Amino acid sequence: MKRNCSMTPRQALLVYALLCCATLGIALIFTLRGAWMVLAFALIESAAVGAALLHYCRHALDHERVRLAGGALLVEHAEGRHRRVVRLDPHHARVSLVDTRMRTLVVIEARGLRVEIGRYLTPSARLELVRALQLALRGGALP
User: Which of 6, 46, 88, 89 is exposed most, by the fewest CB atoms within 10 A?
Assistant: First the structure.
């Protein structure tokens, strides 16, 4: 499960470079004609857009992964630079969804450990995830 992003970080960088070239090129023309304030505003605008795209790029690759491998249920959550992997006992794991209509997350509990997943899924997709996990924990395999 991953965040729904329309651009990869590389594409965002390319868009930002093209936007800066166009904005600063136009601002430079106005500056050469005596309107130096246009350049100042273009620099402020480029910095603000750059900050917004930096935040976007840091979180564009956020994801959650659930794997059933080697006798363990591995739940990986990556958000920005932070990555966390939780190892759960699949024989004692319980999967639940508190409210199927609300924006609650899927809860996996095993031996005192509790993990919430499904941040990037719609409520109906969370329900499908619960069903798939319950089936896999009963003896099937994760899709």
Answer: 6
Same structural domain, 129 and 81: yes
Range(s) of the domain holding residue 69: 63-137
Q: Which residue has the tokens 């970080």?
A: 9
When the pLDDT of each residue in the chain is averaged and rounded to a whole number, the result is: 89
- Sign of the alpha-carbon dihedral angle for 23, 24, 28, 30: positive
69 and 100 share one domain: yes
The residues with which 94 forms a beta bridge, in sequence order, are 109
Segment 6-31, tens digit of pLDDT: 888 899 999 999 999 999 999 999 99
Give the DSSP letter string of 17-63. Answer: HHHHHHHHHHHHHHHHTT-HHHHHHHHHHHHHHHHHHHHHHHHTT-E
